[in-house]
Amino acid sequence: MNAPAMIQAVSERFPAAVKTSHMYRGDATVVLRRESLLGVARVLKEDPAFEMNFLMDLTAVDYSCFGKKSSPAFFSSSGVMVSPSPVIPDADPWPGPTGPERFVVVYHLYSLPLKHRLRLEVPVEEADAEVDSLTSIWGGANWLEREVWDMFGIRFRAHPNLIRILMYEEFAGHPLRKDYPVNKRQPLIGPVN
Amino acid sequence: MSDEAGFLTSRLEEAIGWARKYSIFQYPFVTACCGMEYMATACSHYDVDRFGAGLPRFSPRQADVLFVVGTISHKMLPVLKRIYDQMADPKWVVSFGVCTCTGGFYDNYATVMGIDTVIPVDVYIPGCPPRPEYVLDGLLKLQAKIQAQHLSGHRSAPEPRPEFRP
Description:
heterodimer, A: alpha/beta, Beta Polymerase, domain 2, B: alpha/beta, 4 strands, 31% helix, 11% strand, elongated
């Protein structure tokens, strides 16, 4: 299934769950409502038309500074405006952040038997930063969700072991949030430097 | 041949220093990409065994020199300190690569800005990663330092770290 067909199939199958969708350079993205994530993900894995048996990646984006700071960089991951290269043809421009929500949890799915892929995005409010855990569907989500919790402070409901995975337990805060002070250090031993 | 027994005059301190510097048992504390250069140095092409340092010990109790090879994070630092404390005197520390010397290009929430903030360092080998020739040069400098030390293993205090002024 190619990207336009994928978007169409998912949108027709889950008309209530899909908020919006877009394609960027041939990759299909579907933005889902938070409450429907678990059901959609289960169907995407088990339905023979999709058969997304591989959760390639699970991460999050903090859009709180997006577009609010300028940068001379052509491409930057530091929350600034990104301008695509004029050299690369861009038939499907990226529409930008999907809404006012601060965070977006991103899931990259791939089907090993059918060789197609899909990106799911779930916008999450800062005040209620919680989504359903996908560990019951893909076991590999376990550590990825712990990483997102550690770095962004997004909780995963019904996760079996939601503790920090990269930082130490004594660490306060979530370092990849854009409001984490860039110079803040929390050493376990030794001076702060 | 004469029947007289041959003898050699030397000062004991020098003899012990000579023995120590050519029998370095190193503890490689390898955490990152510098480990590749460390392995290259240790293997036959550069052959660190020429300098008597060819036998890494993976127990701090049996090691003389702590090679800290690669980026040290704040999470790892207590482990490094414990390894250092477990080593028996006399002991030396080599800081291998810029990450262990100063933090290198990392300046973030996770990385220690130089291991000398916590444990004393005898030889700094900068580079990202350092070439094997550089490592061997650092090893020779360490040997010179060992040779120069007093018999008791006492050594002069490490130079205080200069204040960082942006």
